[in-house]
Amino acid sequence: MAHESCDFQEQIAILKEQLREAQKMTALGELVSTTTHEFNNVLMTIMNYAKIGMRHQDTATRDKSFDQILTAARRAEKITNSVLGLARNRSRDFVPTDLGTILDETLVLLEREMNKYHIVIELRLDTVPKVLANGNQIQQVLLNLLINARQAMPKGGRLWIHLAHDPEMGMVDLTIRDTGHGIPKDQLPRIFERFYTTKTGPDSTGKGGTGVGLAMCRDIIEAHQGKIRVQSEPGMGTAFTIRLPVACPRKSNTAPAIALGIPKEFGVPN
User: Fold this and answer.
1) Any residues with CB less than 8 A from the CB of 159 and at least 6 apart, and which?
2) What is the pLDDT of residues 183-194, one digit of tens each?
3) The domain containing residue 140 runs over which residues?
4) How many structural domains is the chain composed of?
5) Rounded CA separation 107/187 (Å)
6) pTM, whole model, 2 decimals?
7) Are 106 and 171 contained in the same domain?
8) pLDDT digit string (tens) for 12-22?
9) 176: closest CA among 115, 116, 114?
10) How far apart are CA 231 and CA 183, in angstroms?
11) C-alpha angle with apex 248: 242 to 250, nearest 5 degrees?
12) Is residue 19 one of the residues assigned to a domain?
């Protein structure tokens, strides 16, 4: 009987790891269209200003063309570095990680999408220490939370992002607050359940509606010995806060197995 129980637990662990990898590929796939269009826009800008510079010989026009080409090239570099950020760090190691850098790379990937849907982003990034984290996994969480916030504001809105340090608890807090439609109180306690979703299906961009995104976010944050909570009011918007432990300079970890279940003491507000 004990042997069967061990086999069952091992199968659960394998399936959970497969689900985590599938969710990672989903996050990458959802960004393919966005980043491809953005990169195409950058290339078109470079090509058009190159043609202008070749047609016009006056110094002012050519200088303007070179400036625009350089700006576009730098934009392309940021997009490339951000996409590479998703692909790097394939290991499960936890290392001191700059959460501000991860956030910046994530926002670069979603900048075009946020502009398209008229989302105004306001940042308040306090000086915080590095957290002990797997950067790739944390970026998956940020992508999911930011995309959810965008989807909650289909007619545009405001997104506040606050990064702060709690030195007494040895934690770094990252809050993402939107001005969207909010989550009904009867649905709020279930949003971290696997396969439960408040959406009718993927939107026009192909994102959302599977019910695995927030469950994955919770699992990742708990595996980091952190916490995730949500506050929401219908018609007033939603705020997600993730808390991650500050990195110990003498210590490096390997990611523990992601645990199932929603902690009773955290996850939804009282």
Assistant:
1) 114, 119, 120, 121, 122, 146, 149, 150, 153, 176, 177, 178, 179
2) 888 787 777 776
3) 92-254
4) 2
5) 28
6) 0.67
7) yes
8) 777 766 666 66
9) 114
10) 9
11) 155
12) yes
